[in-house]
Amino acid sequence: MNTLYDSEAFSVVHMQQDIPMPLEANPLFTPKAEHNLVRHGFEIVDKRSGREVYLDGSWAEVFHAQIQEWQRNTPTQEEVEDTLDSYTGLAHHPVVIH
């Protein structure tokens, strides 16, 4: 889990499987190629509303492409927050601290 962005309005965390679980450890399990997929996603927290959205799958890929573009052409904070604000319509889950 890596914090990618943190401001007064937003927080973005990249969640990625760091170490693949050794499938060979379970003698009853026969590893297959599709079981070796590494999943990742992004959590965007809108601190203004107290809501969060978790992007995975194709949404995560689109957001990851946006991050790569930001790395090539450094955006202003306003540009980053405008982009993050476009995802707030997906944020239906209240932030809960465990």
Describe this structure in words.
This is DUF3567 domain-containing protein. It comes from Lampropedia aestuarii. It contains 2 helices and 5 strands. It is globular. It has helices at 57-72, 77-86; strands at 2-6, 10-16, 40-46, 51-56, 93-94. Helices cover 27% and strands 28% of the residues. It has one domain (2-94). Strands 1-2-3-4-5 form a 5-stranded antiparallel beta sheet.
How would you briefly describe this protein structure?
The chain is of the alpha+beta class. It has helices at 57-72, 77-86; strands at residues 2-6, 10-16, 40-46, 51-56, 93-94.
How many strand units?
5
- Measured between the Cα atoms of the first and last residue, the distance is 16 Å
Run of helices and strands = EEEEHHE
* Main β-sheet description: 5 strands, antiparallel
Specify the overall morphology: globular
Structural class: alpha+beta
Give the strand content. Answer: 25-35%
The helix content is 25-40%
| Number of helical stretches of at least 4 residues | 2
- Strand line-up in the sheet with most strands: 1-2-3-4-5
What's the number of structural domains? 1
Ordered list of secondary-structure elements with their pairings:
Elements: E1 2-6, E2 10-16, E3 40-46, E4 51-56, H1 57-72, H2 77-86, E5 93-94
Antiparallel strand pairs: 1-2, 2-3, 3-4, 4-5
Pfam families: DUF3567
InterPro entries: DUF3567
Protein name: DUF3567 domain-containing protein
